[in-house]
Amino acid sequence: MNEISSYEKYFKMKILWYREFEATFEYVHSAVPCLDYLPMEILIKIFSHLNPSDMLCIGLTCKRFLDALQYHAFSKYWILSFCERYTSNFAIPYYLFTSKCCQRTVPAVAMYSAQLDEPTVEDFWEFYGHNLHEVQFLSGLLRKEEFANVMKYTKNVRTIRIEANSMFKNWTIQKCGYDPLRRILLYHCRHFGLARNSFLSPDIFEYLMMTVPNVTSIDLSNCLSIMNPPERNRFLDHVLAYINENAEQIKSLNFANTPTDDLFLDRLGRIDDLKLKELHLTFTGSTKNPVFGIPILIASQNELEKFDLTASPCANDLIVRMICGCMKNMKVLLLKKCHNLTDHGVKELCKLKHLKSLEISDCDYVTDVGIMEGVLSGDPKDKMEELRLSVMTNLTENIIFRMSYFFPNLKVLDLGGVSNAVTDISIQMIFRHMKYLRFLNVESCCKLTDFGFTGLESTYAKRMHSLRNLKGLQVLRANGLYKLTDFTLSDAFVLKELKELYVARCNFTIKGITSLAENCPSLEVLDLSECKAIDDECVEIITKNLTRLKTLKFNNCDKITEKSMEIITNNCADLRNLFIRNCKLDFDPSDNLAYMRALRKVVS
User: Fold this and answer.
1) Which of 238, 315, 370, 413 is paired with 142 by a 20 to 30 Å CA distance?
2) Three-class SS of residue 23?
3) How many C-beta atoms lie closer than 10 Å to residue 401's C-beta?
4) Residue 351 class from Cβ within 10 Å (0-12 exposed, 13-18 middle, 19+ buried)?
């Protein structure tokens, strides 16, 4: 890769096949014969600017592109999942992954209820374990001996996630005697996740953490929900003891939706050497005592860059004021569903000069005044990349007008449910100024019409600003916009990079669906639930043109029949998820869909 710059100097990116006729050249646009001569360094440089799904598609163009896709730096985008099959007709034997013809690099493996005690499975771990960087156990019952047998082959693993709730149910820890896992040390592991586990105990926690001596990030989110208070406090005491012993190296903690009290937060804040960069917390305590509990924690973590307080019922203006006063390096602040937050707290956000991502969704007491003075004050902020303000019913159009030019480089904008602020005029300002958006959510903004998306008030009117201005848009959530018609799909939806589209409860017909299928070829997720005009003919048009579909949603589409299932079976080779709930089918769709290799989930 060090030679890429030199190749860029001497090779111009023009693939021309020419013939000479008396000092003139004829340029033939077909570049296929020359693809085998492209330098691999140039191909790798080009591929580095693509997203993973586009990489997979371009890898099927020719063998040269497929070889470039095997570059080791690209392997971080793929994960090999052993999951429950929708049908047993296409069971892939483990030994195929260890055969000589398989030369792929597997950096990450996820196990969904897989059996790990088969001899061929052990061959798999022995074959790939040395190169694995991430291992995930996401469901199932795993014996301690099986876990130790896997870990002994993955010496270079960097991330371990154990999110199988029943995995530790039958584990017994022997503090004396021989134990194979106690002899395994994973020195390269930096992140250890134990999320969504209800059967944790202090002994199991210490037993597992002993294998990762250099861990810097611990995930204990959504845990301890079924424990009684004495058991929970005993477990948290052991967690604090471990953090105290390894305070200098720990930089990230996740306790989201895990019950904690003021005493735990106070003791966590009094650990001298603990300097976190990232903290996830669901705060349910008190702020009355300024020298006990969360005030001590906030004051001690002045280097924090990401703070997640999502769904914290006791997070109020005082908490936000302390955050803005002590954590000057804050880059990501998430305050979703903090219902006690008001304009007084939001006004303090103007002190965070390095903020890149902000979420204040579903905060009922926040109005235009707080957003204007706290978020949209001063000069335009080029660093802001993500802003989420969904379900903010007290906002008006003035916020959208100012926001549109205040954050010119915004990539993620969530305005779902902000029906009073998102109108045809205000969304025109978004299309005019925010041309770098990759994600846009305007769900349930029922005032939007065709004019808002197309910029055309009538057929002969001068065009203003259209959705097509957002050429890099990849995700659009527009569920519940019942005033949109086929004209919007045919005129505004010319988005070559659009990957996910959610337009449930919209009044589109076959005319608009045809235009959508032709103008948005990269769609992978499409939600047309509760669209009354969707029938078998629409399904055929969608599946024939959108060959990259992975998720289809046709919930409550009454006109879909058995013919649609046959069409999906024939046209959707890569489909993984199909939602056809309440479609009034007179048969079991499993019979028609049994021969789809990639299908993982059918909800009917």
Assistant:
1) 238
2) coil
3) 18
4) middle
Q: Could you give the C-alpha distances from 452 to 327, 411, 442, 448, 485, in angstroms and in order? A: 40, 20, 12, 6, 12
**If we measure between CA atoms, which residue out of 469, 399, 394, 387 comes closest to residue 435?**
469
pLDDT at 546: 95
Q: Residue 441: is its pLDDT beyond 80? A: yes
SS3 82: strand
User: How far apart, in whole angstroms, are the C-alpha atoms of residue 469 and residue 162?
Assistant: 43
Which residues on neighbouring strands pair with residue 49, listed in sequence order? none
pLDDT confidence tier of residue 13, bands split at 50, 70 and 90: very low
DSSP 3-state assignment of 167?
Answer: coil
Sign of CA dihedral 347, 350, 351, 357: positive
Q: Which two tokens stand for residue 422?
A: 């998102």
Phi-psi region of 293 (alpha: psi -120 to 50; beta: other; left: phi over 0): left
DSSP 3-state assignment of 305?
coil
pTM of the model: 0.88
Going by the DSSP 8-state scheme, the letter that residue 129 receives in this structure is G
Domain boundaries, the chain: 4-54, 78-259
Q: Are 374 and 397 in contact (CB under 8 A)?
A: no
Read off the pLDDT of residues 114-167 as tens digits, 9 standing for 90 and up: 555 555 577 788 888 888 999 998 877 777 887 888 888 999 999 999 987 777
Lowest mean pLDDT, pick from 198-207, 275-284, 414-423, 500-509: 198-207
Burial class (CB in 10 A: 0-12, 13-18, 19+), 170: exposed
- For tokens 């208070």, name the residue: 229
Q: Which amino acid is at 145?
A: E
Q: What is the mean pLDDT of residues 190-198?
A: 93
Q: What is the pLDDT of residues 53-95, one digit of tens each?
A: 888 888 878 888 888 888 888 888 888 887 765 445 555 666 6
- Write out the H or E segment, with its range, that includes residue 56: helix 52-58
* CATH topology for the 78-259 domain: 3.80.10
SS3 525: strand
- Going by their DSSP bridges, the two strands 17-21 and 24-28 should be labelled as antiparallel
Phi-psi region of 34 (alpha: psi -120 to 50; beta: other; left: phi over 0): alpha
Tokens of residue 49, six digits: 């600017």
Here the tokens at position 470 are 């957002």
Query: One-letter amino acid identity for 66?
Result: L
Q: Is the pLDDT of residue 176 over 70?
A: no
Mapping DSSP onto H, E and C, the string for 470-499 reads CCCCCEEECCCCCCCCHHHHHHCCCCCCCC
Is residue 461 pLDDT above 80, yes or no?
Answer: no
